[in-house]
Design a protein that fits this description.
single chain, 576 residues, alpha+beta, 22 strands
């Protein structure tokens, strides 16, 4: 027995030492797990808290200190400390949600804002659950806090851009229900903005029946489509539209993004052109188009009466010949046209569009067509032809072409014109290394201008701004309105430094000289990007757009480019 006692003591000591070692190891493992959890929460930007109701002690994970920007060493987590962070406008709602959680004993989600010391706002998604004892008394509340400020700001920017888009932008789900839409879309249909909520495509689509609509939606979810249809306004009137639609991924689900453009006026122009063509064809049948015939041997030319009218020759009995016809050709193009006519003699038929100067000195554009006739030995016997005055038609086509690339309100280039010009500059850059820069700017607080003074005043601001900026840029620079209050300037042969100087010139001029609204300054924020070797159209735009965003975040009425930032007053360089 005496021999066994020391052995038992040693065994007990060994077990004690082993137990303590095990405890230390478990504690270390728990610390490691906690650190891993904290790192994971930090990456996810999510914090965890626990509140003991009886002791009123509150625990915050490290991420909550990070989200709320509180010093861990100086801040004691309390309910009062967190309550002071909640945005005053959200406190009543948060309190109601907390009461709801206690009353229903269910997990509650609370979306609210918190205020930072410097006045910045963060958006918080909070999940709260309260635990109760057997008597039904609350004993502990636990929850999570997730900072989704970036996502919320992106959503607000998206909605702002969408609401203020100049085109009729609308986003549908797979059943044709309206999810998002621009104010211009609501206006085009004759609705107030809020009246379109919960509407379906069947409420405005007038050309397609329900089966055709379903088939079209199914097709749109697979491919891009541009088509023409008719839309029905609130008052029942119909108008022609062109729809450009594509599928997008929104909130993890496939949606349909569609842009609506009123083409009623364009349709009217096309109808007028068609009527004109019918009239010209009818006129040709009854001899109303100018006809002529050239004798290949004598050189004598015979005209019909309509041809005298086209050339504005009052004396319809005056003789015509080849030499007199040549006097109607513009001096600067005469030799070239004569050379073409000589080449045409070697062909059976020919067609050429050229200018003429009438006897009264008016310049016209004519479509001339002719056919040569030869004898058995290949000698020219005669040529007969027609001349159609197409001056007005060309003018209309130019108007339509200009309208396709022109913003209707400001008469600046539109997004289509911007895309075409940008593609040209990128091609020149890649081939000849010709540098260029891009400026993106929009009007600060433009929505407030519309809301305060009305859209007609907002339109006046946009038009005045377009004229002012157009007077400031060089002839080889191009300015575009690409949507809402957003404008772009493309500056060929301009690097970042010189683009910044022009941008600051534009900013100052707008602040000083754009006096559309009494007692209110109109300002712009400008982002600048320079084309670089690996840039694409999208990446260049994103660079400038990012700098525009920084200008907005820095207080508006600023110019920001890579390594440059111009404040509202003065022109000092700072690292942006």
């Amino acid at each position: 027995m005496m021999i066994l006692l020391p052995s038992l003591v040693i065994l007990l000591l060994a077990l004690t030492f082993y137990g303590r070692s095990r405890i230390i190891k478990v504690r270390r493992e728990l610390v490691q797990v906690r650190e891993q959890l904290e790192r994971g929460l930090m990456v996810a930007n999510m914090g965890v808290w626990e509140y003991d109701i009886s002791s009123k002690k509150l625990y915050w994970s490290d991420t909550i200190y990070h989200i709320t920007e509180q010093d861990r060493e100086r801040t004691t987590p309390t309910r009062e400390a967190f309550w002071d962070l909640i945005h005053p406008e959200d406190r009543e709602m948060v309190l109601e949600k907390q009461k709801e959680s206690l009353n229903t004993r269910r997990k509650t989600e609370i979306i609210h804002r918190i205020l930072m010391k410097d006045g910045r706002v963060k958006w918080i998604e909070e999940h709260l659950k309260t635990e109760f004892d057997k008597s039904g008394n609350p004993v502990k509340s636990v929850g999570t806090i997730y900072d989704f400020t970036r996502q919320k700001e992106g959503e607000l920017i998206f909605k702002s851009l969408l609401e203020n888009a100049s085109d009729g932008i609308h986003i549908l789900d797979e059943k044709g229900n309206l999810l998002y839409y621009s104010r211009s879309f609501a206006r085009s249909l004759g609705y107030e903005y809020d009246e379109l909520e919960n509407k379906n495509i069947t409420d405005w689509e007038a050309n397609l029946d329900k089966d055709q609509i379903r088939a079209t939606i199914k097709l749109l979810l697979k491919s891009d489509i541009t088509f023409e249809t008719k839309h029905r306004k609130k008052d029942g009137t119909l108008f022609d539209v062109q729809i450009s639609a594509t599928d997008i991924l929104l909130d993890g689900k496939k949606r349909i993004y569609a842009s609506q453009r009123d083409i009623s006026e364009q349709k009217h122009y096309i109808e007028q052109l068609n009527k004109l063509n019918i009239m010209l064809n009818t006129a040709a049948k009854v001899g109303k188009i100018g006809f002529w015939e050239l004798d290949g041997i004598s050189g004598k030319v015979e005209w019909n009466e309509a041809l005298y009218d086209i050339f504005e020759v009052d004396d319809k009995t005056s003789p015509m010949d080849r030499e007199r016809f040549l006097t109607f050709l513009p001096p600067e193009k005469k030799d070239d046209l004569i050379h073409k006519f000589m080449l045409f003699q070697k062909r059976g038929d020919y067609s050429v569009v050229h200018d003429i100067i009438t006897e009264k000195g008016n310049r016209k554009i004519v479509d001339e067509r002719g056919r040569h006739f030869y004898d058995g030995e290949g000698r020219l016997i005669k040529t007969v032809g027609s001349v159609m005055d197409i001056t007005e038609r060309i003018a209309r086509e130019r108007i339509i072409k200009k309208q396709a690339v022109t913003d209707e309100l400001t008469q600046l280039g539109n997004r289509k014109a911007y895309n075409e010009r940008l593609s040209e500059l990128i091609a020149q850059y890649k081939r000849y290394h010709l540098i260029f820069s891009l400026l993106i700017f929009d009007i600060d607080l433009f929505k407030d201008i519309n809301d305060t003074y009305g859209h007609h005043v907002g339109d006046q601001v946009l038009m005045a701004l377009g004229k002012l900026v157009s007077s400031l840029v060089r002839k080889n620079d191009f300015i575009f309105r690409i949507g809402g209050e957003e404008f772009v300037i493309l500056m060929s042969g301009t690097d970042m430094e010189h683009a910044i100087l022009l941008a600051e010139k534009v900013r100052r001029a707008i602040e000083k000289d754009l006096n559309v609204i009494s007692n209110r300054d109109v300002t712009v924020s400008i982002g600048v990007g320079e084309m670089e070797r690996d840039d694409t159209a999208d990446s260049l735009f994103r660079k400038a757009d990012k700098n525009l965003y920084l200008a907005k975040r820095s207080g508006r009425n600023r110019v920001v480019g890579d390594l440059y930032s111009f404040p509202a007053k003065g022109a000092t360089h700072t690292q942006s």
